[in-house]
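Worked example 4.2. Below are the chains of a multi-component assembly; read each line carefully before continuing.
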Amino acid sequence: MANQMPAEHGQANQQKQAEPRRRKGLGPMAKKEAQLAFQMLLPTFAIVLAIVLIPLAANFWISFKPIKLADLRPPAPVVSERVRGDMGVAGEEFTVEYRLRGSSQSKPIKDIELVDTLPPGVTLLALDPACTANGNQIRCTLDLLEIGERKTLVLSVTGDTTFSSNPVSPRDSKPDISGFAENVLTSNEFTLDNFRRIFSATEFWNVLWVTMAYTIFGTIGALLFGMFAAQLLNTAFVGRPILRGLFLFPYVAPVIAVAFTWVVLLDPFSGTFNAILVRMNLVENGINFFGQRMAEFNFFGTVVPFPLALSSVIAFEIWRYFPLSFLFILARMQSISSDMYEAAEVDGATPMQQFWHISLPQLAAILSTLFLLRFIWTFNKFDDIFLLTGGAAGTRTLTVDVYEQAFAVSNLGAGAAVAVVIFMALLLFAFFFFRFMNREES
Amino acid sequence: MRIGLGFVLAIFTGALWGMIASVLIGIALTMVTGLPGTPVVFSGIVAGAASGATISFRPAALRSRGLAIAAFFITILALLASALMMPFSLPLSQAPLVQALAIALFGLSVTGGTWVCLRGIEPGANSRYKRETLLVRVFRGIGFVFFTAIVVLPFYVMVMTSLKSQQQLLLNPMDMSIDLSQGPQALFRSYVELFTQFNFGRFLLVSTLVSVITVLITLAFSIPGAYAVSRLRFPGRDLLSRSVLLIYMVPAIVLVIPLYAVFSQLGLRNSLTGLLIIYPATTVPVALYMLQGYFKGLPPELEEAGLMDGLNRIGVIFKITLPLALPALASVSLYVFMIAWNEFLFAFMFLDDPAIFTLSRGVVSLNSSEVPRQHLMAGAVVATIPIMVIFLWFERFLVQGLTAGSVKG
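Applying the procedure described above to all two chains together yields the following structure tokens:
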């Protein structure tokens, strides 16, 4: 830490004017203070490092690995034990066989060790060369079990009279077996297949388009609706607190609750919303809002195709997140001084002019910040689409694609590769975000 | 005062209100009573136009209470006459009381809405200011109706569906009335089944436990961190206080694969311990960010006085800073509680064992063709009610938390 001190002195001098109450940069005191600060931040660092930063790095690692979901269960040796011969006759020889194989179809298993205990009253006659005995305890070791290879270890034993009169099968004691196999997660095996696979799929470019459409329309829609709602509640009236609370409901309620409610509400056969449409004679049959990829609009004779499921998902996104924009814009609007409006009123400005020339410029900063933040968060959104459509009917975004690749197709590597694409896009956004923040601050 | 453009605008305003009111009241009538009615939108428009014309017949300054009453009755008469006495496509003899109520409501809302919109608007020429005022009023009116409808309808349907039986739902999906005559046992049968057969009592307990522990861990981690960032000076402080938010932008879905892989191998995957490691990790950065903002706003003189009087840093934090920051702690706690309670992705990916399902995970398990829809909706209600109660109870704190947390979606 000592070599960082000069830098801190410089910083301290810079900040002296901004924070005059702070002490001047005292060497040992400042050092102690910094040490205390790091101690206090340590738990936060540790948990963020373990659960966020290291997994982020690990995600890159996994994206270059030929790893399937099944590979998470590490390959292990499997043993089945058999007894041949008659145990019921004292002194008669019988055999105990251990049949070994590997559980994996792709990885050999090394350094296998098998430990088993023979029942009392049983004497060893002959031992497989791989095994050693210590009293009734058998220990067998194998160097290697190739892929698909089966090995049988045979012990030939005999029982005494007490054993034969009441034979206890050696199978009753389960053998302990352990082995070492290379784990794909930690091996040196790398591949570019995951990236090749996702980029070569035509589906992927479609997914990108859907993601962009979802993000842009979802963000702008939520902002516009939020602004509209904020305009409504900007003047005081009876019941405003109630409406403000009500308008926040969609955002506060758990996503599973509202998503399933929308699914039930918009169900083509038994959904209330479709029943209303049919009752109002707007449509003949229920519309499958979340299941139909394209709908066709007959617009004065020209047929306009229209991505129905994607639009429904965007509508949900707007519905669920307009409260957030609403909250921020309302807070900002209420902090605009009423003097300006009064002056404008005196000058004869109309309501629209007041909105365009007073409110909107004052809201520009919060609107652009909200746009950036909501853009990133909508881009990151997974739960909503996953619960509404599962990514079907042309609503698969990048985040849903991660799940599809990794857990539906069971290709963890490909899923991680999509996650890397997401992360790269986010880096790009973060870059703009920082530049924007810097500009705002100056 | 001549009759002119203002009169035409008044007719349009009234017609618009008539259309909205007739559609909404018609739908509401059908949903609340279960009667198979369809509003005659055309009559609604005619009645609204009549209302607007009546009101605008007099100059703005001369409109009396008598005119309002006249407009009310003219509206209703126009509605009944133009719809041939069947404004909801039902004979008036069917459920006459409810229909009468709906018609009265129609007259009241159309006349009232039009009256308010037309206040100060002359039947003749109006200044641009007045024309825009009328436009803004109409838009505001539509806005209130629209936002209230889109928020209320899904929640209303959620609650009502959970109180129905399978046959009732299939028979008429629009019928969202409650049949009180069947008794509470039958009315709440879905809830009873959820808690007796689907183990929802346990899910509720697990969710509460997980959320509360997440809040405690988050506070334990973020309070010292936030204090350090806001009060102590160390190299890299500014960078840190800003990059905290960047951490917050990392999407959960990017972390899911590595965490799934590692937690599977460590045996933490199908366990609440695993969740209780992940949830705080995702909430600590934002809690730290929110708290440091609040700590910075507290006067440092108090803490300095405490240090002078012989308290150490820990003492200062516990005896001075935290008591002063109680509102912020409440906001952060509620916000974190909400995140943990509503969390879906990790609960869904990590929990396989129904004994440790959180409510989110439990509701998802109801989403199958074997479980009737009213159970799914009842589950949604069970998951929503606690968070809503907390929200309404502590709205002020939670709104502060939302505003300060700002970025989470």
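Take a moment to check your reading of the output against the notes. Residues 194-441 of chain A form a domain with the MetI-like fold fold (CATH 1.10.3720.10). Confidence is low (pLDDT under 50) at residues 1-21 of chain A.
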